[in-house]
From TrEMBL:
The lineage of its organism: Eukaryota, Metazoa, Ecdysozoa, Arthropoda, Hexapoda. The keyword Protein transport does not apply. It comes from Diabrotica balteata. It comes from the Eukaryota. Binds 1 zinc ion per subunit. This is glutamyl aminopeptidase. Residues 267-404 form the Peptidase M1 membrane alanine aminopeptidase domain. The record marks Y343 as: Transition state stabilizer. It is found in: Cell membrane. Zn(2+) binds at E280. Keywords: Aminopeptidase, Calcium, Cell membrane, Disulfide bond, Glycoprotein, GPI-anchor, Hydrolase, Lipoprotein, Membrane, Metal-binding, Metalloprotease, Protease, Signal-anchor, Transmembrane, Transmembrane helix, Zinc. CDD domains: M1_APN-Q_like. It catalyses: Release of N-terminal glutamate (and to a lesser extent aspartate) from a peptide.
Length: 567
C-alpha cells in the first residue's frame, strides 16, 4: 500500500529516521538477472527496539515491496514516496516494545538505465561482443534503491550477503568480505554466500556480478598475510599488476601509520552527512601519504598544492561557496555537498592542522580517535578533542578549526613593514572586488584563527604564530641577519598573503632560493591577488620570468594553469 505524502509543509524532520529502532544484522539475498536487467531480493533484518513504537520505519526507493513479515508473522506496510520511507506494522497493530525483533521483506526492482543503486553496466570486447555486469553505487543515499535498509550513516549493522550469479564458471560474485561457500541454486545459477562483515554503514555495502578475472598478491596485516586481488575484464588483466603492487604498499603503510589492522575504511564514520568532510577530506589528504609511501619519487605532497589546494582556493573565494560543515537533511541536499569544498578544502585544512600540531601529534591523535570510535560514528569535534588532549594548552584546536569549518571562505593577510617589524592584518579574500556580504552571518564575522608560518634566507620558522580571529593584528620581528621573509611556508596554510610592492620585488629577486612549494605558491597567489584587483599583474608576470628549465614540473604546471586562466 502506498501513501504519497506531498504536503506543502517544510517537514524536513520526516527525512530522518526515528530513534526508536536500530538494525543489528542484514541477512540479505539478492538475485540479479543480467539478461533482463531486473532483480529481486529478500532481507531479514535483526533489530533492537530502543523505544516503544507502533511501526518500524526504514528506507526504500523505487522498489516493489512484495511481502513483509514481522517475527515470522505477516505484517502490513505503507510507503511514503516523498521521504523514501517504508513503514512496517504488525498485522494486529500491537506495538513494538523495547528488546529484539526482526522484519523480513521481499522485494524486486529494475537495474536498467541507471548508475546508482544496484544497476547493470557493460563493456565491449575486442571482438565486438557486449558483456553485461551488475554492480552497485550506494554513497550517499542510494542503498535504499537496492534493498530496504536504514540508510543513514550512524545506523551501522553487520551484513550476511548471498548473491546470485550465472553458473558459467567465467562469472564471479563479489561483496565486501570473502566468499564463505557457493551452492547450486538451479540449473543456470549459483548462490554465493559471503562471510559476515563488521558493522558498517549501508553506503559501504557493495555487490558485483561479472565475468571479470583477477591478479593476486598479498599484504602484511599486522602479522597476518591477507590476499589482495585486483579485478578487471580479461583483456585488461595485464594492467592490474601495478595496481596490486601499489595497493600492497599503500595498505601496509596505512596499517603501520594507524597502528590498526585492516579493514580501516569502515572503522569510523561521520554521525551524519553534515560532517562529510571528516570522511572525504581525510581520505583525500591521507591518500597522498599512501601514494608517497608507494612512490616516494613522485613528489605527491608538492602535487597536492596544484591538484587539491589551488582549485578550492579559487572556488572558495566566491560568495557562492559554502562552509565545510553544512546542515543537510534531504537526499538532494546530501548529494550536493559531495563537492570540492568537502573533499579539497577538507583535505587542505587537515594538511594545515597537521603542520600546526606536528606530524607525530597528528598521527597519534588520529590513532587515538580511530581506537576510541572504532566501528562507531563521530563528529568533527571528536577528532579535534583527541588532538587537543595531545596539544595541551598551547592553543585551542577546536576554535582554530571552527573558524575554517563553520564559515565559508578564507582570509588574506595584508603585510605592513616598518624596519624589521612585520604587522599583519586580515580580511576575507574575494575574487570579486565589488562583492558585498554580511559579516554578522557567522559568529566569527568572517575572521579566522590563522596559524602563520614563515621562511627567511636563514631557514624556516621553528613555530607558528597564531593570529586569532578576535585579534586586530599580529606583529612579527624579522630575525637578525634575514634579508627577506616569506609567509605561509610551502603554502601549508589555508590563507593568502599580500605584501607592500617593495617587499614583492624583494621576493621576486630571491625567487630562485625558494623551495618548489614556495615557488608554486607565489605564482598562484600573485595571479589570484591580481585578479582580485589587490595587486598589479606586473608582479606575477615578473615572477614567471624567473622560471627556469630546471624548475620542477609542478611549478611549471602552475604557471601554465595561471596563464591559461588569465589569457
Amino acid at each position: 500500500m502506498e501513501k504519497n505524502n506531498c504536503d506543502n509543509k517544510d517537514n524536513l524532520v520526516k527525512f530522518r529516521l526515528p530513534d526508536t529502532v536500530k538494525p543489528l544484522l542484514y541477512d540479505l539475498y539478492l538475485y540479479p538477472d543480467l539478461k533482463t536487467g531486473l532483480f529481486r531480493g529478500k532481507v531479514n533484518i535483526s533489530l533492537e527496539i530502543l523505544k516503544e513504537t507502533e511501526s518500524v520505519s526504514l528506507h526504500s526507493k523505487g522498489l516493489n515491496i512484495a511481502n513483509v513479515k514481522v517475527a515470522s508473522q505477516p505484517g502490513t506496510f505503507t510507503i511514503e514516496k516523498t521521504y523514501d520511507l517504508l513503514n512496517i506494522k504488525r498485522k494486529d497493530n500491537s506495538k513494538f516494545i523495547p528488546g529484539f525483533d526482526n522484519v523480513e521483506i521481499e522485494f524486486d526492482g529494475d537495474m536498467k538505465n541507471r548508475i546508482v543503486g544496484l544497476y547493470t553496466s557493460s563493456y565491449t570486447t575486442s571482438s565486438g561482443e557486449k558483456r553485461q555486469i551488475a554492480t552497485s553505487k550506494f554513497e550517499p543515499t542510494f542503498a535504499r534503491q537496492a534493498y530496504p535498509c536504514f540508510d543513514e550513516p550512524n545506523l551501522k549493522a553487520k551484513y550476511k550477503v548471498h548473491l546470485l550469479k550465472p553458473k558459467d564458471s567465467s562469472y564471479i560474485a563479489l561483496s565486501n568480505y570473502p566468499v564463505e561457500n557457493v551452492t547450486d541454486y538451479d540449473n543456470d545459477h549459483q548462490l554465493v554466500t559471503f562471510d559476515e562483515t563488521v558493522s558498517m554503514s549501508t553506503y559501504l555495502s557493495c555487490f558485483i556480478v561479472s565475468d571479470f578475472t583477477h591478479t593476486e598478491t598479498s599484504f602484511n596485516n599486522s602479522g597476518k598475510v591477507v590476499p589482495l586481488k585486483v579485478f578487471a575484464s580479461p583483456e585488461n588483466l595485464d594492467k592490474t599488476r601495478y595496481a596490486g603492487e601499489v595497493g600492497k604498499k599503500v595498505i601496509e603503510y596505512y596499517v603501520q601509520y594507524f597502528q590498526m589492522p585492516y579493514p580501516l575504511p569502515k572503522l569510523v564514520t561521520m554521525n551524519w552527512w553534515n560532517d562529510l568532510w571528516l570522511n572525504e577530506g581525510f581520505a583525500s589528504y591521507i591518500e597522498y601519504k599512501g601514494v608517497l609511501a608507494a612512490e616516494p619519487t613522485w613528489g605527491m605532497l608538492e602535487q597536492f598544492i596544484i591538484t587539491d589546494l589551488h582549485p578550492v582556493l579559487s572556488l572558495d573565494a566566491k560568495l557562492s561557496s559554502h562552509p565545510i560543515v553544512k546542515h543537510v537533511v534531504t537526499p538532494d541536499q546530501i548529494t550536493e555537498i559531495f563537492d570540492i569544498i568537502s573533499y579539497n578544502k577538507g583535505a587542505s585544512i587537515l594538511r594545515m592542522l597537521e603542520a600546526t600540531v606536528g606530524e607525530e601529534v597528528f598521527q597519534n591523535g588520529v590513532k587515538n580517535y580511530l581506537n576510541r570510535y572504532a566501528f562507531g560514528n563521530a563528529v568533527t569535534k571528536d577528532l579535534l578533542t583527541e588532538l587537543q588532549l595531545l596539544v595541551g594548552n598551547k592553543f585551542d584546536v577546536t576554535e582554530m578549526m571552527d573558524t575554517f569549518t563553520l564559515q565559508m571562505g578564507y582570509p588574506i593577510l595584508d603585510v605592513a613593514i616598518s624596519g624589521d617589524t612585520y604587522t599583519l592584518t586580515q580580511k576575507r579574500f574575494l575574487k570579486d572586488p565589488n562583492a558585498s556580504y554580511n559579516v554578522n552571518e557567522t559568529k566569527f564575522k568572517y575572521r579566522w584563527s590563522v596559524p602563520v608560518t614563515y621562511v627567511t634566507n636563514l631557514g624556516k620558522s621553528s613555530e607558528f604564530i597564531l593570529f586569532k580571529y578576535n585579534d586586530n593584528q599580529v606583529t612579527i620581528k624579522k630575525p637578525a641577519g634575514a634579508t627577506w621573509l616569506k609567509f605561509n611556508t610551502d603554502q601549508i596554510g589555508y590563507y593568502r598573503v599580500n605584501y607592500p610592492l617593495d617587499e614583492w620585488k624583494n621576493i621576486i629577486n630571491n625567487y630562485t632560493l625558494f623551495s618548489t612549494g614556495d615557488k608554486t605558491h607565489l605564482l598562484e597567489e600573485t595571479f589570484m591577488i591580481a585578479e582580485a584587483n589587490q595587486l598589479s599583474y606586473t608582479i606575477p608576470l615578473e615572477l614567471t620570468k624567473k622560471l627556469k628549465r630546471r624548475n620542477r614540473l609542478y611549478t611549471m604546471e602552475c604557471s601554465c594553469i595561471q596563464y591559461k586562466r588569465h589569457s
